[in-house]
Amino acid sequence: MFDISIEIDRPAQTVFRHIEDIEAAPAWYSAVQSVAKLTAGPVGRVLENIVEVTEFEVDALLTLSSLSGPTPFTYRFRLAPTGHRTHLHLEGSITGKGLPGPMALLAPLASSFFERGMRINLESLKRIVETARPAE
């Protein structure tokens, strides 16, 4: 399990729009190469595994949980307004339970590896959100 917090110089509504736009995830989430929705609506995505939105509160909470793949995970994004800024907190849990063969030996390192990657991803998200033109 890991926790990451970051301050983004935009309102929570703006930050949330970027996080919930799963189809835009490849712009800030380095592990995502493409996204295809399996069902209509604002939730669900396909990477090399299937991910489901398990919690959703507009402008406040988005939780993604993997349904398949070699590294089962849950990412809970919590947003809290702090004036004109947003405090974004990510709680992540991930295992390497599905890693095949000798790679299974790396399973205990999965959490720290993904934490490092998500820190970089959230910095990318921050940069994108803070430099995006406001919606008209």
Mean pLDDT: 85
The CATH topology assignment is Alpha-D-Glucose-1,6-Bisphosphate, Chain A, domain 4
- Placed side by side, the strands forming the largest sheet appear as 1-6-5-4-3-2
Based on Cα principal axes, name the global outline. globular
The Cα radius of gyration reads: 15 Å
Structural class: alpha+beta
Using DSSP, what is the number of strands? Answer: 6
CATH secondary-structure class: Alpha Beta
In the predicted model, the low-confidence regions spanning at least 5 consecutive residues are 43-47
End-to-end CA span = 39 Å
Tell me the CATH architecture. 2-Layer Sandwich
The helical percent reads 10-25%
Count of helical segments?
2
Order of helices and strands: EHEEEEEH
CATH superfamily: START domain
Largest sheet: 6 strands, antiparallel
Structurally, the number of domains stands at: 1
Report the β-strand fraction as a percent range: 25-35%
Describe, in plain words, how this protein is organized in 3D.
Helix content is 23%, strand content 32%. A six-stranded antiparallel sheet has the order 1-6-5-4-3-2, covered by helices on one side. Residues 43-47 have low confidence and may be disordered. The chain is globular and about 50 Å long. With 136 residues, it is an alpha+beta fold. It has a single domain (2-130), classed as START domain (Alpha-D-Glucose-1,6-Bisphosphate, Chain A, domain 4). The chain has two helices and six strands; from the N terminus they run E-H-E-E-E-E-E-H.
